[in-house]
User: Fold these one by one.
Assistant:
Number 1:
Amino acid sequence: MDKVKLGKLNVISIYIAWVFLALLITSLILLIISQGLGLLLFTISLGGLLACAIIHGILGYLVRCPNCNKCLTVQGFGKNFHYGNRFLVGWSYVAVRWFSGSVQCIHCGVEVNTNKLK
Ligand SMILES: [Zn+2]
C-alpha cells in the first residue's frame, strides 16, 4: 500500500480514537445514571480506543517525514521543532491538518505534502 493511503488511514484511526475517547468520558458520566448502560458503553469505547491505538501505533511508524525520516504523527518524548504555540502544534495538530494537503513536520519543521508521500 502506498504511503499516501497509509497516511490517511493513520489519521483516520486517530480521529476514530478521539471519538472513542469522548465516548469513554461520556460512559463514566453515564455510569452514575445507569450502571448497565454505562458499563456497556465503557467496554465498547475502551475496546475501540485500544484497537485504534494499536492501528495508529503500527501505521504511525510507517508514515515518515521525507526530510528527517521521523514519524510525522508520533511525537515521542524527545525535543520537537516548535513553531507558534507549542501546546497547539504537536502531533494532534498534524493529524487535524492532514487532509489540507500540507503539514509541517514536528521534528524538523519542513513542509510535507501529505498527498505526495513516498
Ligand atoms: Zn522532518
Note: The CA atoms of residues 73 and 92 lie 7 Å apart.
Number 2:
Amino acid sequence: MRLNLIWPQTESLVWKMQPKSLTTYPVSLTLLAALTPPNWEIEIIDERMEEVINYDEKVDLVGIAVRTLIAPRAYEIAAEYRKRGVKVVLGGPHVSVLPSEAMRHADALVLGEAEPVWGQLIKDFEAGQLKKYYKAETLPVLGNHPVPRYDLIKSHNYSPMIQIESSRGCPHSCAYCSVPDLYGKSYRERAVNQIVEEIQYFKETIFDQIPAMPGQEKHKLHIAFVDDNIWPRRKHTRELLEALIPLDIEWSAQSSIIALRDPEFLDLAKASGCQLMGIGMESINQESLLGVNKKVNQVDQFSETLEMIHKVGIGVQGYFMFGFDQDKTDGFEKTAQFVIENKIEMPVFFICTPYPGTSFYNHLNSQGRIFNRNWTRYDAHNLVINMVSMSNEELKEGFLYMHERVYNKESIQKRLAHRGPGPDFFFFANLHLNEFGKQLRPYWDGVEEKDRQAASILPDSPKTFTVNKPTATLTPGSLGLGIG
Ligand code: B12
Ligand code: SF4
C-alpha cells in the first residue's frame, strides 16, 4: 500500500518569498507517517520546497494538511487525485473548524488531533470501509507515538531546526486564536524523558546531515519546540530545562511574555541552550489587547521583561498585530519606536485576521465586516476585514510603513548592535523581512484585482468603513534602505 502525505504551497507572498532556509519541515506529516503501519510505503511531498506532485503515479491513499491559508490549494490537489479515483483524507486546523466545507473536497476528514484515530482510519481503508469522519472522543495523551519520520523529508534545504513538541494546548483564550478550541484549554505535557529520548535520537541519527543555522559559528543541534506556549507550568519546564543541559543543544520556543518574568527561569533557559524566544506581545495598546481577551499581556511590563530576557543573552522574535478595533494610526510609529528602543531582534508584524472558528471571526462576521473570503489571503499579511478606528487604506499604509521603518539598515543596526559584530541568524531574517516589505504593495494591488474579478471580495462591502477617523498622519518613505 502506498500513501502520499502532502503539504500544499500557496500564492501567499509570505510563503512564496520565504527562503527555504527559514522554512520548517511539515512536522505533522512526519508524525502521521510514524503512526502509519510499517507495511505502507510513504512519500511526503512539500510543495513549498518545489517538490512536484505526480498525479499519475500509483498511490492508494492521499493525506493533505489543511491550514486556512492553504485550504484552496489543498482542495485543488484533492480534486486532481479524486478525479483519478484516489481516496483523499484531509486533516489539520481548518478542517477541524469547517468540516462541512472540507467534506466537499474529501473522502474522509480527521477532525482534531490524529493520534487516536489514524490507525483506525488506515484499518478501515484497508478493509474498504473508509468512513467520512474520524474524531477522537478525548484529547490524546501526548508522546505515546513513535518518533516522527524525519527520514522521509526529501529536501535538505529546510531550516536546520528539528521540531519537537513538549506540550499542547493553552490555558488562555485570546479571541483571535484557534488553539484553545482545537487543542483544549487543558495544557498537556509530554514526559520529560520522552522528549529527551527524542532529541537524543535525532542527535544520533541525523545531526551530521543538517547544516548549521545561518550565521552560526558553532554547529549544535537546534531544537524548535512547536508548542503554542511552552511555559505555563513551572514544574514541568524546570524539569525539562534541567534535562536539556547535558544534551548540549540550542533551542527556541514560543512563550507568553508573563511566563518570562522570572530571572531564575531565564538563567536556566540560557544554560540549557535557549537562543530565541518567540513572544506574542501583539500590541502595545492595552485596550487593543483587552478587546481580544489577551488579558495575560501587561503592556507596562513589556520593556522590563524584554530587558531581563536580553540580559541573559536570549534573542527575541516579537509578534505584533495591527487592525484591532482600538488601534489608532499613531500606533504604528509608537510600535516602531518600541521595537527599536527595546532592541527586539526579530520583530514580525501581522494584520489581524479572523480565522474561522475563533470568537474573533464570529464577532466580525456578525458585524458583516469580513469582506474577503478567499482563504489564500488568510496569511495575516492581507487585509480581509473592514476597520473601525481607521480606514482600510490607513491600516495598509501603516503596515507598509512598519516594514520600511523597522527593517531599514539603521533600525537593524540599532536592534542588533548588542549581539556583537558579524551577521547572525537575526541579521539574515531581518534582511528577508526588509525585502518582503518592498514587495508587499505590488502584491496587494495584484491580489485585490484578482479577488475582485473572482468575486471573493464581496461586491457590496465598502472598501473603507471609517467610524472614527483619526487625524494623525504617517510619514513613510525616505528612510534610506540600502542593506546588502
Ligand atoms: C509551529 C507553528 C507555526 C510554525 C510553522 C511550523 C510548521 N512547520 O508548520 C510557524 C512559526 C512558521 C507558523 C507560522 C504561522 N502560523 Co502557525 N502554528 C504553529 C503551531 C504553534 C504548532 C503547529 C505544529 O506543528 N503542531 C504540532 C503538530 C504535530 O500538530 P498539528 O500541526 O496540529 O497536527 C495535528 C492535527 O492538526 C492533525 N493534522 C495536521 N495535519 C494533518 C494532515 C492530515 C492528512 C491529517 C489526517 C491530520 C492532520 O494531526 C496532527 C497530529 O495530531 C500552531 C498551533 C497549533 N497547536 O497547532 C500554529 C497555527 C497552526 N498557526 C497558525 C497561523 C495562523 C500561522 C500563520 C499563518 C500566522 C501566525 N499568526 O502565526 C503563520 C504563517 C506564516 C507564514 N510564514 O505564512 C494557526 C492556524 C489557524 C488556521 N485556521 O489555519 C495556528 C493553529 C495557531 C493559531 N494562533 O491559531 N506556525
Ligand atoms: S496565549 Fe497564545 S496560544 Fe494561548 S490563546 Fe493566546 S494566542 Fe493562543
Note: Residues 425-453 form the longest helix (29 residues).
